[in-house]
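During the no-cost extension, the postdoctoral fellow (Dr. R.K.) reprocessed legacy sequence entries with the updated structure-token encoder. One reprocessed record is reproduced below for audit purposes.
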Amino acid sequence: MSGWILAACEELSLLLPHLMGMRVECMEVRDGRVVIEASTPGHVPVPCPGCGAPSGRVHSRYGRHLADARCGGRGVVIELSVRRMFCDNRGCPRVTFAEQMDGLTCRYGRRTPVLQRLLSAR
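Re-encoded structure tokens follow.
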């Protein structure tokens, strides 16, 4: 399946605004949960968190599993493929870094910020 960019699907972007701009490969129900397989756009440069220099050179990709807020009474899991990037700035102490998506991921996070806010409010 070739996937689609969520910004093109107005109905889904209303329900899942934090996935805007992600490449969604598949959405299905597995074991009673909504599972969304997505990836970050492969052509967008990412600023290095150490020095701020933009990088478009990919080191590798790896998978993250993020719990998200319930939708339609079902739990939601986002299986997200993110890039690990090289920092080409020779003055930067970082050699590689993992991209973070605003509103969707944070370092070492296993929940989306939306779910984290819901849990913190209880």
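DSSP finds two helices and eight strands in the chain. The mean pLDDT is 86. The remaining legacy entries will be reprocessed before the final report is submitted.
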